[in-house]
Design a protein that fits this description.
155 residues; alpha+beta; four-stranded antiparallel beta sheet; 6 helices; 20% strand
């Protein structure tokens, strides 16, 4: 078995169709990130993933057997499929099942540029002036500890 020693880091950006701000809730962000990370078992390596409200930036090391076009198709298909599965209300906004716009951006990122690219991706929320809404369901114990609420049971 041959080991791929080549550096094929790419910086990519996918934009939501119609530029809707669909990537502002933490649960949707988590779903998209999990879907991207599913490709790690195929040899993909992800570095930073940053969300800017209506788009996602990320850096990925693509195995040599995949072309850029194939990679884009695979990543967009899997992420949109997972988002529609876990968040069925998106079907109301995207009835034809196309979550991502046709626009995408990709560029080759060498070792020197990788750090600058990662820094830009990390600062997406500040750069675009958005606040992520944490809509994840909390466990009761964590909620009580965070808010200081006391539960009283009356019988």
């Amino acid at each position: 078995m041959r080991i791929d020693t080549r550096n094929n880091w790419l910086t990519k950006m996918f934009k939501c169709k119609y530029a809707y701000n669909c990537l502002r809730k933490q649960t949707v962000i988590d779903t998209c990130t999990e879907a991207l990370r599913e490709f790690e078992k195929f040899g993909f390596k992800f570095s930073e993933i940053g969300y800017g409200g209506n788009h996602v930036h990320f850096t990925v090391d693509v195995p040599k057997k995949y072309s850029v076009l194939t990679t884009i198709t695979m990543l967009k298909s899997r992420t949109s499929k997972r988002i529609f599965e876990k968040h069925p209300n998106f079907r109301k906004r995207y009835p034809r099942g196309s979550f991502w716009s046709g626009y995408e951006h990709h560029e080759s990122t060498g070792g020197k540029d990788l750090k600058a690219s990662e820094e830009y991706i990390r600062d997406q929320q500040k750069h675009h002036g958005i606040k992520i809404i944490d809509d994840r369901q909390k466990k009761l114990g964590g909620f009580i500890a965070e808010t200081g609420v006391r539960l009283v049971c009356k019988t």
